[in-house]
Amino acid sequence: MEYTYKIVPYMYWQTTEFEKWLSDLALEGLEVVKLGETWIKLKRIQPKRLIYKIMLDEESIEKEYKETDGWNKVHTPNKFCLYVSEEEQAKVWLEYDHKKEIQKVEGLLNACKIDGIMTLLLLVVWAVMFSFSIGQGLVYKLLTGSLTAYIILFITYIILLPQKIKEFRGLKALKLRLEGKVKQINNQEYEKIHKDNLIRVVTSWITIIIFILTFISILSEDDGYMKHSIEFIDIPIVSLASLETDSTFSRMHQENKEDIDWKNSYEKKSNLFLSTQYEMRETGKVENSKLKVDEPFINQTIYEINFKSMVKPFTNSLLKRRITRGYREMEAMEDKGLDSLYIHEIWNGIEIIAVKGKVVMELYYRGNGDKEEVIEQVIQTLDCYQ
């Protein structure tokens, strides 16, 4: 293969280390073609000695010297310029204006300081917003994706802030080196810098992967009508029609609907912690005046959790969330073939939280059906997910 790629193990301010690494690659038969901040494109050549020079300010280079002594500019990122020359052509080091180069470093230091302060302030703002957001439903928000944006921002900030600190220190060290006030580093320090930068690259890619997975989960969300036939949904649920046995029952749709009939609809979501989250709403009407509820409805959410260890904390979070929202505490029921069952009876209805395996079901029903029948259908529904 004529070309190959490698991860860049050094930052632009680590000039001496960076230059040495590139020269070592040339001795291995690899010459720089294109250099980015994370990846470097290399061309396979016959091993030879090449001298590389990183310059932060292109204007500090003496143009005529560069042209007459065989120095060539390599494709580089915006923050610095990279020059290369064969050793026999580079009779002396590339001459440049030290004063301009130091001024460039000072400008980068000031910009880095401002970026670091802004990142720190954003992290503080994030912490305040996060503390107001979580309340007592931390696990619930985590699994249902409500905290996804906060998590991505947090990971981004904790990577950016140390990176800005390292960049600031690195530029200060570079300034001292240009002023001749610091000695060259040894091989052990080379290895430490190399390791630190590889960790930086890995953590950056982890952040990117988490962002991509989150974006994919958002794209996978699905809304739709329940329509007139409950068979339209091919997943096990507790059907309102199975509870309302009166012959006058029919599904009731909202008037003047635009895109979604929210009285009879479903949503499907997924994220890193939930393989699937189904949320369904169904509303009906009965024309029998002897029945107490003329507009029965049922709302149910089914959570298929990826990790068994998170089922119990998630269930507890659901129960605490009810209390913080002003609802009454639910009663734990005896074993009915489920891992956990909590109910709260309301006027002509019932609220249920049921758990079996890695599936949690949250149901709210108000209607004319028998409450024991509702519980039985919840059990049967959860059995279908096992």
Task: Write a structural description.
The protein has three domains: 3-86, no CATH class; 98-219, no CATH class; 222-384, 3-Layer(aba) Sandwich (Protein Transport Mog1p, Chain A). The model is unreliable at 221-231 (pLDDT under 50). The strands form three sheets. Strands 7, 8, 9, 10, 11, 12, 13, 14 and 15 form a nine-stranded antiparallel β-sheet that branches. A three-stranded antiparallel β-sheet has the order 1-3-2. The chain has 386 residues and is of the alpha+beta class. It is 41% helix and 23% strand. It has nine helices and 15 strands.
Number of strands: 15
Q: Biggest sheet: strands, sense, closure?
A: 9 strands, antiparallel
Shape: elongated
**How much helix is in the residues?**
40-55%
- Strand fraction equals 15-25%
Head-to-tail CA distance between termini: 50 Å
Number of helices: 9
CATH fold-level topology of the largest domain: Protein Transport Mog1p, Chain A
CATH architecture of the largest domain: 3-Layer(aba) Sandwich
- What is the top-level CATH class of the largest domain? Alpha Beta
Q: What is the H/E string? A: EHEEEHEEHHHHEHEEEEHEEEEH
